[in-house]
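Exercise 3.2. Students should predict the tertiary structure of the chain below and write it as structure tokens, then compare their answer with the key that follows.

Predict this chain's 3D structure.
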Amino acid sequence: MISESISNTFTGKEARLFHTWRWIHSSFAGEFQRLIEEGADRLESGNPIIWRTRHKYTLRIRTCTGRPVAFKRHHTLRMFPYLYYFTPTTREALNYQRLQQIGLPMAKLLAAGAVRHFFRPKSSFLVTEFEENTLDGRAFCPGGEMEHEAAWRDEFCHQNFRMIAKLHDAGYIHRNFTPANELWRKRETPDSSGNQLEIIWIDVASCQHLPGILLRNAIPDDLAKFLRFFQFAPEKWREFLQTYCESAAIKRFGLQKLFHEVRTRLEKRPASGKKDRHSAGLQNGQKS
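Answer key:
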């Protein structure tokens, strides 16, 4: 039995725990059907592999209309905790939808679903539009191809600290806020704020809504995780944290307190190493 829903918004009500289900965006229904019929979602299809681990993979697929999409599949899932709980891709699909609704620049969600036999999860998937001509923020990190583009690097950081402030204002913690999960490309012309870079967020499976005190305690971890990829002097940290404080509608920290909390975390754990910044399998900066 397959439960299929086609609409413009994924609400989570489409998901089923007892049997197989899938949700498809209205604009993608025909392309999705053709993609599945042709087996383009299979690992052996010959489509470029963006990301692969033991239990999951992401393919870059060009659909019958020429639209590039990123197709993520978990082909192996543990029975627990997912027997009576949403799979990782279902939670990520919900996060894509929620973050888009609060005004964050997300890759467009196109489809999600899971294969289940009497509650037992067998596999799950997520499809988003593939953002072409982008790099992720690791290009600005030490050793990256854009390492010496200081003006673009700083704009990338400032924009993302404004965006993470909006996420926290909405009551969410990211938990994987790193330069690898924010794509960017140069705009043809600057936007109304003078920004030269367009930012797109991906890989939001770890985002979680938290109550006030838990959220406040976790905010410095989010910010330190991002800054850890760079080799900034403390005064540079302060510059980006000031942007965060000025952008946050809910004032949970003063600049000095936030600077202390983030600095403490950065000093406890050294900067991310080369292996973290250049994980194997990434192409064009997009993982999901």
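Discussion points: The longest helix spans residues 150-169. The chain has seven helices and twelve strands.
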